[in-house]
Amino acid sequence: MSDMTQSPEVETSVQPRKTTKRGGGDPASRGRTTIADGVVEKIAGMAARDVLGVHAMGSGLSRTFGAARDRLPGGSKSVTRGVKAEVGEVQTALDLEIVVDYGVSIADVAKAVRENVVAAVERMTGLEVVEVNIAVSDVKLPDEEDEEPEPRIQ
Asked: Do 129 and 122 contact (CB within 8 A), yes or no?
């Protein structure tokens, strides 16, 4: 007779690997996000232009140079014309220069621009807007010709 030794059956179960968090904390808090001044300026410029009664942005001189630059091949309209932003880590301050249409209440337009700019910048960047200074540099009269004429070729 041969001696066959049977080993007792051992039941092995696979234990799931414990997942360990590396780096600790919420993934959203790992690292830092910085937002360039130009980003805030673009957002503010678009938001200001959306307000009824805002004819243009910037001073007469900057609009004239901008119109010439826009006509150059590869040139595009500057959304940031008339907007200056100072961006910190959690706050931003903005200076806007606008031209309003004749007949509108400047106070109402300025209030609407301020509200629209604050809402857009805070929603899109998460920065707190501490101030929006608005300088009205001109009023567009109904019979005045635009400084940025329509191109002759379309």
From this structure: yes
Question: Which residue type occupies 68?
Answer: A
Alpha-carbon distance 28 to 51, whole Å? 34
Locus of tokens 């696979």: 14
Q: Band of the pLDDT at 25, cuts 50, 70, 90? A: confident
User: How far is residue 98's CA from residue 114's CA, in Å, rounded to a whole number?
Assistant: 12
Cα–Cα distance between 20 and 59 in angstroms, integer? 58
> Which residue, among 126, 146, 59, has the nearest Cα to 95 in the 3D structure?
59
Q: What is the pLDDT of residues 27-62, one digit of tens each?
A: 777 888 999 999 999 999 999 999 999 999 997 654
In the chain, the amino acid numbered 26 is D
CB 141 within 8 A of CB 63: no
Residues 141 and 101 sit within 8 Å (Cβ to Cβ):
no
What is the spatial distance between Cα 5 and Cα 154, in angstroms, rounded to a whole number? 96
**pTM beyond 0.90, yes or no:** no
